[in-house]
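#lab-general

N.A. 3:47 PM
ok so I finally got the sequence cleaned up, no stray characters, all 186 residues accounted for. can someone with queue access submit it? mine expired

B.Y. 3:52 PM
send it over

N.A. 3:53 PM
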Amino acid sequence: MKNIRYIPVLFAFTLAIYILTNIFSNDKAYSSKNIKGVNIGDKAPDISMKNQNDSIITLSSIKGKLVLIDFWASWCYPCRKENPAVVAAYKKYKDVQFKKIKTKGFAIFSVSLDKDKTAWKNAIAKDNLIWAYHVSDLKFWNNAAAVVYGVNSIPANFLIGKDGIVIAKDLRGAYLENKLEELKNK
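B.Y. 4:20 PM
back already:
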């Protein structure tokens, strides 16, 4: 008989969980129905977002090169640890002729999931991210590009060929270097 008095509490708790689950599953930013993601072989959706100086930059503005779309954030420790490898790859391959895919040049299009503009700008400087393409809408995990690309953890990246097709994804450290070397040689 003592356990009977807990039934209303248990019912209320279960009802609250059900209601909260439905609220967030119907929210466009959180609904899995709206997060298809981008996979190898897909056409990379264009990204149009402000850079750190508030100018609009688009991914399509660098079409024709091999492009790494790199999702990261200043607060992300694994991202910051990965940045030296990304910088090294950029320095080594930015002017290379990629024989396998018949294109010259390697660019990086960095998409930050930051919400603090100052922290983002400071991290770009501190990590020596010397390429020209840095964008963010400062919406944290609700970053428009991250939602479209289906990014649910960072660091994450997508390697895009000159035709705008995703040819690889989630290349870190030596895997990025190896893929770029493979594309360089015929």
